[in-house]
Write a structure and sequence with these properties.
binds guanosine-5'-monophosphate; globular; five-stranded antiparallel sheet; binds zinc ion; 3 helices; alpha+beta; 5 strands
Length: about 120
């Protein structure tokens, strides 16, 4: 069941979290259970359940969100990295407030395999 803004964990972290950076209606935080050496989450301040609802953002705001993701990686010292969005329960989404994973450096291969739902023999 998707969260509503009043009980949404990431809405709370947007207002009260430990922000790595914040600008233009977006914040970046450290993931509580990192799967890579650097694992940041970019959250829009505006509550949108999932990437599927990207149309809730005007084009200009969607563009700024992408730039914020890139600037967050750059500010974290990353040149080469992954950007990941899990979409819907079947896509591995567990928190229903749109967020972008920024992943760089060494990966925890076991955790990454679980996130990507790969077979681990
Ligand atoms: P999803 O699976 O929805 O794509 O990603 C949710 C992410 O939020 C997970 O990587 C999880 O570790 C992270 N997370 C869950 N609860 C908290 C929290 O209270 N604080 C922070 N910083 N990250 C959280
Ligand atoms: Zn929210």
């Amino acid at each position: 069941m998707p969260s509503q803004p009043e009980n949404c964990l990431f809405c709370r972290l947007v207002t009260a979290g430990d922000h790595v950076r914040t600008a233009d209606g977006f914040v970046a935080i450290r993931d509580i259970n990192p799967i890579a050496e650097t694992h940041l989450l970019v959250l829009p301040e505006r509550h949108v359940d999932t990437f599927r609802d990207i149309d809730a953002f005007p084009d200009e705001e969607a563009g700024r969100m992408l730039r914020f993701v890139a600037d967050t990686a750059s500010a974290a010292g990353l040149d080469d990295y992954k950007v990941l969005v899990n979409v819907g329960e079947g896509g591995g989404q567990t928190v229903f407030h749109l967020h972008w994973h920024v992943l760089g450096g060494r990966f925890d291969s076991g955790k990454l395999a679980r996130v990507l739902e790969l077979e681990t023999a």
